[in-house]
Design brief:
The complex is a heterotrimer of chains A (204), B (351) and C (148).
Chain A: E1 30-32, E2 35-41, H1 44-54, E3 59-63, E4 70-71, E5 77-78, E6 83-84, E7 88-91, E8 94-103, E9 117-124, E10 131-135, E11 148-153, E12 166-171, H2 185-203
Antiparallel strand pairs in A: 3-4, 3-7, 5-6, 8-9, 8-11, 9-10, 11-12
Chain B: E1 4-14, H1 22-35, E2 46-50, H2 53-56, H3 61-65, E3 77-80, H4 84-97, E4 102-109, H5 116-119, H6 136-150, H7 155-169, H8 184-188, E5 205-216, H9 217-223, E6 228-237, H10 251-259, E7 269-271, H11 277-286, E8 294-295, E9 305-306, H12 310-323, E10 329-336, E11 342-349
Chain C: E1 7-13, E2 16-18, H1 20-31, E3 35-39, E4 45-46, E5 63-66, E6 69-78, E7 91-98, E8 105-109, E9 122-127, E10 138-143
Antiparallel strand pairs in C: 3-4, 3-5, 6-7, 6-9, 7-8, 9-10
Classes of the chains: A alpha+beta (204), B alpha/beta (351), C mainly beta (148).
Chain lengths: 204, 351, 148
Amino acid sequence: MSTDPSVTPAALSGEVHLPEKLADVEPVRSVRTPIRLEYDFIPGAASSGYLNAFADRKILGQRSPVDGAVFVPPRGVDPRHGAATPDYVELPDTGHVGGFCVTRLPIPGRDDLEIPYVSAWIHLDGADIGFLGLVAGIDTSEVRMGMRVRAVWKPDDQLGRTAENILYWEPSGGPDIPVTAAGTNAWHAKQITESEEQAAGEGR
Amino acid sequence: MRDIAVVSVAQQQQKALTHTTEVELMVPIINEARGAVGLTQDDIGFTCSGSSDFLAGQAFSFVHTLDAVGAVPPISESHVEMDGAWALYESWVKLQIGGIDTALVYSYGKSSPGSLRDVLCTQLDPYYLGPLWPDAFAMAALQARIMLESGAVSDQRLAEIAVRSLNGAADNPLAVRSSADAAVDSVLAEEPIADPLRPSDCAASADGGVAVVLAAGDRARELCERPAWIRGIDHRIDPHQPGVRDLTRAPSAHKAAVEAGAGNDRLDAAELAAPFTTQEHILEAELGLGSDTAVNASGGALAGHTMMAAGLMRIADAARQIHEGQADRVLGHAASGLFLQQNLVCVMEGE
Amino acid sequence: MAERLRADLVLEYPFTRTTGPVIGAFLTGLRERIVLGIRRPDGTVLCPPTEYDPETSAPLTELVEVGPGGELVSWTWVDPPRSQSPWGQPHGLGMIRLDGADTPMVHGVLVDGPDELSVGMRVTARWRPEREGHIADLEGFVPEGAGQ
């Protein structure tokens, strides 16, 4: 067999020898091979606690046993340390926009979304990471990093065990968080502080 | 070659995890394996995992599971869509290259949310086999009939293997199927589930996870009173199409065992990851296991088969026998693919 | 105890795969009611055909007609049928070595019950009326003499 990469192996170049009967028929070049797999999705302990609390209009996070950082939604672990986070923290339904995106393309299956819409990284007061939410009740051109928001909930009689209970986040008024402190800066601030401390410690 | 050893193992297994995510499963297991030798993630030179996205139905699901490790600040990490035994192999190679002295290996499988018999169809060649959706038990049954008709094995022998697993598993808290009083007659009386295979011929499906810490040279001696030194490790593969193989054999298992030096000395114990009694029978012959080797004292994979972790669990079970002083030379085996297509053999010794 | 939550999760891959010349020829043959194998350098014939010799990886190019009759090498009984399989009722699953081929292929064996199956029995191909170039164009194998 040739090892010259410029020579295409015979089978790949289509030079196969067929029986006479198939000499003049249209060859098959592709084949449908669909796969369908069905699963019973189980949210697990931490997410179940989070989703169940939504039915009572509550947003739960979990606290890191290492440094007290609060994660929402909770996953049962502080991913920085691989440490279990058994303790829940109830969080307010107010926070700020950490970052956002104005989208002018529709999402298939979401006809209820008016175009353009704003998806944003919502940082709840007291949480150390953000989570995704829809921002509405404001002209898209006025959405900004650091803007204070609060949740707009479905009516109580329509609440379920789902994050869909929050219809969207609307401006709540009050002074913006400075851009330099908004959003992921909260997370990074801790990291930077730690590494700066470490660097300072090593320098001593 | 550097001397590299398994210095710590931890595992969990049960019939079905109905209220636990893969992350929630792995946090305590990983912490137990690291903690038992006094290590934190900062002390680990390389981390490698094995899992399959098809079990969870989520693309790149393994990146979620990294939350259980603690990957901040960024760690040196890799993943294989293979049983964790192959993650152990990659870690062993990484340790051989040098520059690090420790590695964390883990794998897990939670197949209970889906139909594993169907999910395994997606590993088949997608033109000739996959579209027929021949489920895992049916395919194994085709092999079993060839073995029985050719005289490569007898019904009686298959039942003896099933009983060995059921009895051995009685003392294993991680086994999901066990029976202290199972006997050949009771197994032979079972109605076939995929003719000629009976339920006890097919591994009991399980959810679970396993973590292993590897260390090199003196670091291993510091961390562990009796490290399980990896004296040989090798993996080999056979062709995929069932028709081109002699299904009464597994040449790749034989070759891996030879390359790993399995037959160079007496083996006290062997832990085999065969999902069917027929395949356990083939492995005993291919690996050259004699009557002086205790095979699957834990019940083996038949007593609880966690997809993607069954092989690393066997290596962990074998290594623990060295750690605890019950054995001096052991073999751990892992397999993947159709009809034991791919096999890994890991030979470990105490000092 | 909080409520245990679950949700349906369905994963679908609506794949269409290119076949290449060898698998394409095999599927073309099925559409035309012909089963093809491929000749190895040692003269033996692989069915179903692969592009490369499984032992030496030498490219294989000589497709030859095999079957439609053959011998049942192994079998099992599938009941209930798997939901995504081409078969809507309990059926045999077999390894069939077609006349002129040296290796067996996996496919359905269409009989009323496992009592009608035995290793070594003669079977022959049964074709679907509508064919498109797919492994299931071959509906399965039936005992020889049972009519196609």
